[in-house]
Amino acid sequence: MILNVRDLNFRYNKFPVIRDVSFDVGEGEIISILGPNGAGKTTLLKCLNRILSPRKGTVLIDGKDSRDMGQARIARKLGWVPQRGESSRMKVYDLILLGRKPYFRWGPGKTDHLQVEEAIRLLGIEALSMCYADEISGGEFQLVQIVRALAQNPRVILFDEPTSSLDISNQHRLMAKIHSLIHAGSRAAVMTMHDINLALRYSDKFILLKDGCIYAAGGRSIITPENIEEVYNMEVKVVEAGGYPIVVPV
Q1: Which end of the chain is more exposed for a tag (fewer CB within 10 A), N or C?
Q2: Which domain holds residue 174?
Q3: Checking DSSP bridges between strand 213-218 and strand 205-210, what pairing results, if any?
Q4: pLDDT tens across 195-204, in order?
Q5: What global pTM score does this model have?
Q6: Domains in the chain: how many in total?
Q7: For the domain that residue 176 is a member of, what is the CATH number?
Q8: Secondary structure (DSSP) of 208-233
Q9: For residues 151 and 142, what is the distance between their CA atoms, to the nearest angstrom?
């Protein structure tokens, strides 16, 4: 396993947000964290890479306790793609190059530039590389953030709503690319998703989060009308189309 999470707890002031969360992530796996707004999905992701410090519990990355790792070392292992990043008056190429910062000594070297060029090629954004980041669309900027995370060459990429700025066609194109990249190599991905059906199409495992706790976890078999009703407080039916389950509101 790349990532082992055990008994993770986090609270804002005295209000518990994440409670006793445990799960594992293996090579080639895409895990989607599902749940309503306020369930703690984004907070959980931020606890994994120690943007937030858990009150209790452990996160092991390749068997090493993240509490014993500095932020640069964590960043070499865990890539982070926020839902809304801040753009800047910087060329896209240079913004992506910042993804290599955890590896810098005195500045970027040949290996760093090669990693950036490879990441740009993998997502097919060569045409954007010399544009200014504050002049591209929101969807294009989301792609740039993903390329920057890829340039880090991490073991796990954490995605917070990766398709939120994209239209339906580009949502599927991006998720198909993520699916291909993760399954082809030794990486893994953990992502929060609002769109259950998009998650069902492109993910391997699922975590249903309710009030900061794991209500159910596993493969597609946990996506049942009963579980969805309990977590989302809505009636649904689950049908099959094209070989994949689809959640349909009743």
Answers
A1: C
A2: 3-249
A3: antiparallel
A4: 999 999 999 9
A5: 0.94
A6: 1
A7: 3.40.50.300
A8: EEETTEEEEEESGGG--HHHHHHHHS
A9: 14
